[in-house]
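Subject: for your reference before the review

Hello V.,

The reviewers asked for a structural picture of the protein, and I figured it would be easier to keep everything in one thread rather than splitting it across files. Below is the amino acid sequence we used in the manuscript, unchanged from the supplementary table.
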Amino acid sequence: MSDVTLPSYIQYLQQENSYPHVATEIQLVQTHISFVLLAGDSVYKWKKPVDFGFLNFSTLEKRKYYCEQELQLNRRLCPDLYKELVTINKDGESFCLNGTGDVVEYGIRMARMPEQQMMGRVMARGELTKAHLDEIIDQLVPFYKAAAGDNEIKTFGKADSVAVNVLENFEQTESFVDQGAVTRSQFDTIVNYSKEFLSHKDRFQARIDAGKIRDCHGDMHSANICLSNPVYIFDCIEFNERFRYTDVAADVAFLAMDLDFHGDTELSDYFVEQFVAKSGDAELMGMLNFYKCYRTYVRAKIALFTASDPAVDEKASAALIEQAKKHFLLAEQYATA
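And here is what came back from the structure prediction:
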């Protein structure tokens, strides 16, 4: 990747002597919204100055606010992982991490997790077990029970509120139809299924009445889980409450979908069955397929957004388009199930 497309402060942070601690073999990882630097035993995460409508990091003030939100919200499940707010400051002609000059950027510092225990890697090695899923469930059941679920949050469970998120995805991706990742036929099938399900407002009201709309994680898939001891379920949605104030079923469906996506359907079924058994939420099953369809579509959208970022190289972009194609296919399978 050419440094030309990277902000100068990120180029600075790719140098070992930019840190107050040992930081050899610094790695930069990009998402559509973040620059993540793996440096020694720490991880530094910086928000890109983007505005996607549903997410707005366009000003320094906003990026600071959402960094603070990220720390606060993620400490619910990972109190010892999320360390502090950090700054990049102007130091003469150069930069300084946590310096005294003018603040150029705000970020967060996290403790570095054991990479070999990241859930995606464990799955790729074929080493994911039911015991791992039991550990995840044992964290999630009390988390949802304790999570806020007041009257304001409950309104986000209404069919009309859920429709805002679901239909927005279709609007934001229609320009990608017949461009290589999703066909018009697939798109129409998924849209029609989703709209039909959303027309049953009583199903959504029943979930509200059962107290199942909570301040959830919002982005619970294998890339955000580390199967260490303890298990870390990290990187929740901090940038938009309407993606986090949701049915517990939508969170559970995200990880179940991700297991399906990676071909682990037996473990996906086990995860759902055990969560239902331990939480006593049997009614979750009636919402599961709908939310799986929604979640895999979100992953497809994000893959397409990231692929079209000019800072992402051609090889990575092509791989992301293939990933999106696979997610759209899975969404179509849920829609026709």
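For the response letter, the relevant points are probably these. Residues 60 and 79 are 26 Å apart (CA to CA). The chain has a mean pLDDT of 96.

Happy to draft the paragraph if you're swamped.

O.
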